[in-house]
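Worked example

This section walks through a single chain of length 133. The input is the sequence exactly as stored; nothing has been trimmed or padded.
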Amino acid sequence: MTLYIDSSAMLKRYIREHDREAAMSLMAGDPVLATSRVTEVEVRRNLSRLLEGPDLTAARRQLAVDLDALALISLDATVCNEAARIAEQTLCRSLDALHLASALRAGSTTTVLTFDIRQAQAARSLGLAVVGC
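Given that input, the structure is written out below as tokens.
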């Protein structure tokens, strides 16, 4: 199985917030972790918004290490076209559509780890398994 980690789940690795332990446990329990290149953009933005000084520097460093260990799904034409189709079909937000298209690209046995309720609903409507919420 592949566990696709969206930005809401990945951020919990660096910020102490609700459901952090659940997210960490789910990530630790799967041998294949994947995410989209869009995760780097979203998580770095949120780290800059939520942390400062040495905490921000340490979180950025750890994010770089973590991203190197994940299977990163590129935002190529195929993923972007699929995201457009998903957005039209589900009316989900653009970044959610990019995450879901990336999760689909990761393979048929992919489970989505998200703590974003709207994204979870869209993922389920596409037939993806969802954990987290």
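What to look for: Residues 2-131 form a domain with the Rossmann fold fold (CATH 3.40.50.1010).
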